[in-house]
Amino acid sequence: MPDTIFIRVNGVPVSVSAESTLAAALLAGNAPTIRPLCGMGICFGCRVRVDGIKHVKSCQTICRPDMQVEVDEF
Amino acid sequence: MSTRADVIIIGAGIVGAACADALSREDVNVTVLEATIAGSGATGAGMGHIVVMDDSEAQFALTNYSSKLWRELVPELPREVEYERRGTLWVAADEEEFRAVYDKAAYYGERHVSAEILNDRQLREAEPNLRPDLVGALLVPDDAVLYAPVAADWFLGRARQRGATIHYNAHVVNVAEGSVQLADGRTLSADRIVCANGIAATALFPDLRVRPRKGHLAITDRYPDFVRHQIVELGYLKSAHGHSNESVAFNVQPRATGQVLIGSSRQYGEQGSQIDAPVLSRMLSRAIEYMPNLRHLSVIRTWTGFRASTEDSLPLLGPAPGFKDVYLATGHEGLGITTSTGSAALITDMLLGRQPSIPLEPYLPSRTAEPAHA
Prior knowledge:
The complex is a heterodimer. In chain A, strands 2-1-5-3-4 form a 5-stranded mixed sheet, covered by helices on one side. Chain A has 1 helix and 5 strands; from the N terminus they run E-E-H-E-E-E. Chain A is mainly beta. Helix content of chain A is 9%, strand content 32%. Chain A starts with a strand and ends with a strand. Chain B has 10 helices and 18 strands. Chain B has helices at residues 14-25, 42-45, 57-73, 95-110, 120-126, 148-161, 201-204, 236-241, 277-290, 336-352; strands at 5-10, 30-33, 49-50, 88-92, 116-119, 136-140, 144-145, 165-167, 172-176, 179-182, 187-195, 211-222, 230-233, 246-254, 259-267, 299-309, 316-319, 326-330. In chain B, strands 1, 2, 8, 9, 10, 11, 17 and 18 form an 8-stranded mixed sheet that branches. In chain B, a hairpin with a 6-residue loop joins strand 17 (316-319) and strand 18. The termini of chain B are far apart. At the A-B interface, strand 4 of A face strand 12 of B.
């Protein structure tokens, strides 16, 4: 079983599987404002801010401990 | 096609469009023949940077004249053209390049082009995302950027309002004195013909020494204020004016949308339009060397285009060799957007028999003719 790690989503600690993509983790945790469509990095629907950097495709990003994620309404 | 045009312009890129605008303004009856759509060649593929260059007197004269003509148009340009007086920052990575900054400043100063030397601290303030150990830069504040295909469209719209006719899907396959032949077999006549179709000019003039020079660009998602000026490395000229087969140079531009346009690359040789991954990679690596934070940005699209390049890096403006009333307006390499206005003015002056504002000789196609043999 993969480890559980903590990331922060809009400041709130969230426990996620260490090997999941950020998009999967956000969807499992009910982050209502991401709308991934393709799951493969080409639709731009899953973009979030990660560690201060905008327009990161969450479906192409693997969760890391202490990752700071901000989900904005676009 | 009932009315015989005074002038047929081949090509609705920025140069052809600017010619259509300039000529129609003088009550010349213009017909533009475009093989596909407006701006489909280098016009739609390039950076849209309006820049005064100092690499030769002839290049300076044409780019400076053209920049002034662009500035005169600013009050009339619609918002969609996205003309912005961003200025160019020529950045120096070491002391040798910084000495070149001083030379450049002197060159522009003597010719009354506004230019300001920035030291390392001032450069960091002007552009926080540049790597902090750059030595300084030359700021040319009156240089600008715009969205070239929209500008071409705007020129064409103005020409149309004055009675010009523009035909799309009109592919010219042959040019003769007084007439052109289209791929569909139709022949159109005009007193004068201006060939402004970029690299496609070599299909009409087989001896023309214009080579396609492939370039890559990348555009990012929206990161407003990531970069504020057009930033170019001083080594850019080595890339542009060298004739090595493959070179890259750091060149970035902020777009009105907040996107960052990243260039630049140059390649000679038969090339398809597909992305050349090693060249793109070298180009992006070079850009990241100068702006390390670029590596975090999301690139949404990459593409290529082909510049019309000549041996002496100057465009061909004037009668085509062997022709009397057929003119060339091509070979603009990476300065087509900048010099479209000046090119159009010079072509108009030539066609109307007027005194041009700058000497024509450096751009005349006859300069490339083989000397007569005894």
